[in-house]
Amino acid sequence: MKKRRWIKKALNGIAWVTIVFLGCNILLRTLSLPSGSRFKEGIEKAIERLEYAVGIVFLRTYSPTAQYLIEENKKDTLEEWIWSLTSAAIPVGQYLKTQNAVIKNREDPIYREYLEDTKNAQAIQELIEGMEEENKNEIIKNSQEETQTETVQVAENTQTDTTQNVENVPETQDIEASGNTIDIFHPQVVGTEYSIAKLSDYDFLIRTFYSVSEITTITGEELNAERLLGMDMTMQTTNDKPQILIYHTHSQEEFIDSVPGNDADLITGVGDYLAQILTQQFGYQVIHDTTPYDIKNGTMDKNKAYTYAEEGISAILEANPSIELVIDMHRDGVNEGVHLVTEVNGKPTAQIMFVNGISKTTLQGSISYLYNPYIQENLSLSLQLQLKSKAYYPDFARRIMIKAYRYNLHYRPKSMLIEVGAQTNTVQEAKNAMEPLAVIIHEVLK
Asked: pLDDT-derived band of residue 84, with 50, 70 and 90 as boundaries?
């Protein structure tokens, strides 16, 4: 009985508020006074105050929760106030309001606005850039869509020893596959070579080659294939001075069979092999920085690794201005049931993924404190590498990931972040991936 009485009372209250609201609006709209009339402006303000007062009285009467929200979220008009109330009280309202922008607390624009208001831009950068796994859920989702789980048994006698020193890398590496000799560093086109007309179709381009983070967007103007492919990514510096820098923001990333304490089994060990191939097979002068930027004072600190890496690589680049290509090599994280592996030259090979950071969120637009003057060049490099991969090794590269932040890709026009396999790959699979990776890098740079 009490429940019915309460419902009846609430309905009467709603009807009363509606009548007052409509009546006030009808009164205002029947006035034919000039737009700039002080009298009309006075009425408008009075109606706004009346709307606000009526809403407060009603909600204070029928919703104890609203009492707190009213005191904490004062607004100028009833419409604005009700929208704020809905967003605060109903999760769906907040979701719609932010348009998918709030994934984690640290990505909450209100939180970032607070930090900016207190002039903590550096703190924001450390917070955002220091967390490479911020979009891990979306990467996992894309990994599941893009890849197929494949179990590969590797015979011991087909594995290549990749722990050798630079001087011991053979001048050529040929292997037998299906009775034919394959020169793995001079590949043949076995995949697809796409025409510029096809790639100029933005819908085709993004559907075929890209995955975009839920908190950012990229337009056809930003992803103009004709312009990107027209950029010259060839190496201009001769090899009498450093040309390429390889480093690892997250140096301690391991693989499924990594031996604890063995640095050769970390992502840095994989980077060693890439440096060896680029040096010995293709004649580039490479600096491989193995500084553990994710360890500070003996403790793992991935949150600020991008900040620490920024300090280190900026010093290296300042001392070696001849460096043109900067590679930040990572290992991805996926669901345990996902195995990012394909076969290249008869060997089980971890799949790779290029990552672009475009310093932009859908909600806020360009992120001024993460400025990158080389976004277009970064996009050009990853697309050119992707197309070379599709031509020579069709299943080797996953879709290019477009993310919202910068990831230290702003130091050189030719900067790239690459994910090599995941925690479910073996060390050998990851090192095998360095052979086709070195080939497509050389194909773009030569």
From this structure: low
